[in-house]
Amino acid sequence: MANFFQKKIYSEKTLGERLKSLRRRKRLSLEQAEEETKVRLKYLSALEKGEYSRLPADVFAIGFLVKYIELLGGPKEDLILLYKQERSKVERPELFSPQTQFKERRFFLTPKLIFLGILFLAIAGLVGYIFYAVKNFTSPPNLEITSPSTESVIRQDKVEIIGKTDEGVTLTINDQVVLIDDKGNFNQVAKLQPGLNSIEIKAVNRLKKEKVLILKVLGEF
């Protein structure tokens, strides 16, 4: 009878209480336990306080617990089982509540919801198109030179300038209008002088927004 009474009182202790009791019997501080187990103090403290939200996933937390139990000399299987029971109650309390009722939620796709969804997509598409169009018209046109690279050395009195801009812009090279194709590509030969040449390439869109690049090439001929 006495043995049963003692076992009952012992089993009512939480995992944290049992770990703390074992540690005190060993005359260890948490700092010393950290040094011996190589488990960070904050995790050992969380185990003793039952603060399971501060612990990592089970696969790591149980590993930490095993190291701690081995240091303290406690019953490994009993304490691991107690850990699992306590953590499951903390993280899933609804499984232990007799008052919990599970209600099935149903979602019905009605013609009204379909109409509202289509309307929302149409409005979103229209707003996106307007934003894209306004941005394109109010921003300077794109302009890039693919050949030659700036500060190139040219061994002849002319250079072929190849690049790309937006469709529909007016493009000039040193104030001479240059034709572009329907994709914005252009190809133009410019005359050079011996020495350093600065070639101005300018793209202007319908709203008079412009983009200017200065291409510097060295003529050595």
Describe the structure.
By secondary structure, the chain is an alpha+beta fold. It folds into 2 domains: 2-96, lambda repressor-like DNA-binding domains (434 Repressor (Amino-terminal Domain)), CATH 1.10.260; 143-219, Immunoglobulins (Immunoglobulin-like), CATH 2.60.40. It is 44% helix and 23% strand. It contains 7 helices and 8 strands; from the N terminus they run H-H-H-H-H-H-H-E-E-E-E-E-E-E-E. The chain has helices spanning 2-11, 15-25, 30-37, 41-49, 58-72, 76-91, 111-138, and strands at residues 143-147, 152-154, 158-165, 170-173, 176-178, 185-191, 195-204, 210-219. The strands form 2 sheets. A 5-stranded mixed sheet has the order 2-8-7-4-5, with no helix packed on it. It has a 3-stranded antiparallel sheet with strand order 1-3-6, with no helix packed on it. Strand 4 (170-173) and strand 5 form a beta hairpin. Helix 2 crosses helix 4 (41-49) and helix 5 (58-72) packs antiparallel against helix 6. The longest helix is centred in the middle third of the chain and has 28 residues, at 111-138. The model is unreliable at 1-10 and 94-103 (pLDDT under 50).
Question: What keywords describe this structure?
Answer:
elongated, about 220 residues, Immunoglobulin-like, alpha+beta, 434 Repressor (Amino-terminal Domain), 2 domains, disordered N terminus, five-stranded mixed β-sheet, three-stranded antiparallel β-sheet
